[in-house]
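Hey,
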Amino acid sequence: MNSSITKLGNDFFRTFTDKTLLFLLEYGWDIEYGGLFETLDSQGKNGPEDFRRVMVHARQLFVFSRWTRITRDKTFERMAAKIFEYLTANFWDADYEGWYSKVTLDGKPLDPTKDLYAHAFVLFGLVHYAEYIKKNEAEPWIQKTITLLQERFSRSDGSYKEQMDRYFSDVTFNQRSQNPHMHLLEAALALSNRNESCQYNSLVASLLKLFDDKFLDRRKLIIHEHLDKNFYPDRKIGHIIEPGHHYEWAWLLKWTADTLDQPNLKDLGARILSQSLEFGWDFEFDGVFDQINATDVSILKSSKRLWPILELIKALCAYPDGRNLVYLNNCLETVLGYYLNETGTWIEHYTQDWQALSDKMPVSSAYHLGMACLELEKFNDS
């Protein structure tokens, strides 16, 4: 089983590195206006979007920074530097601080919302750019973003404001969503792991506490997506849960356990993974369902986006016991058989029985592809 996983993992890694990233280098950058396209098709034609999104640039900054270290390829380094320059020149609000969510093609504010999810990814991207390429250039932006998160986004209940207008008025005061907090934890772990003084461990611990106290139902081992300001499931959409986020949290709990030296978190992560495989995996056609009903764990959306199965690959690599190895082999066969083409392009979304739903590739999916590759490399090296 391990030899099969190793071969499939190596095929995945090589395709992503040698084909996907080169495809994004050739077609992903807008040579007329600058910045990264939002979507591409399999021929490299960009989508109709007439804006630039900060989250896309932050995720690509991570990918090309990390692969600069892996490959020592100067082309990747130049791309990362170009993204960093565009990000800091166009998305930072010089008047009121914070990162715009979207700008026009010529770099003017289009959506000046200050979004927690986007800020978490900007921080994540900047940390990797600092670690692998240019620390001195990135460090001031890292500190600005951390200060902003602490002073403008944080709430007294331990959560963070999810969206604010340009002037930092909270426009989501009645909601608490796990997804942006999950990615803030991911950024905090990246910060903590590069800093020998462990000064960011308290941020990691506080976000873990928020997860354990509010978002996780320990009895059912399900993770709530949408809560109200009192941390009760939202009346309209509180029943929706996503298997992909359960896998992502399982993986994060392993990383958090290693960072904080709390081995009990690994057991919690393993149990969340095991439980969510039961309701998230499609035992008829393979793959991961998009949405499940938290009330009775019935299927809400049987379609299958790319990212959830990539998050499952990460989690299975973190908990490589016997049954999980079978799932891991199956996941890799599914990704290479349906999602990731030999050309490095990919199919983003399918029906349950594997009918493609879109010919557009969100370039932000390179983050999920890259993260899965990194965990497979760790697995193969272990």
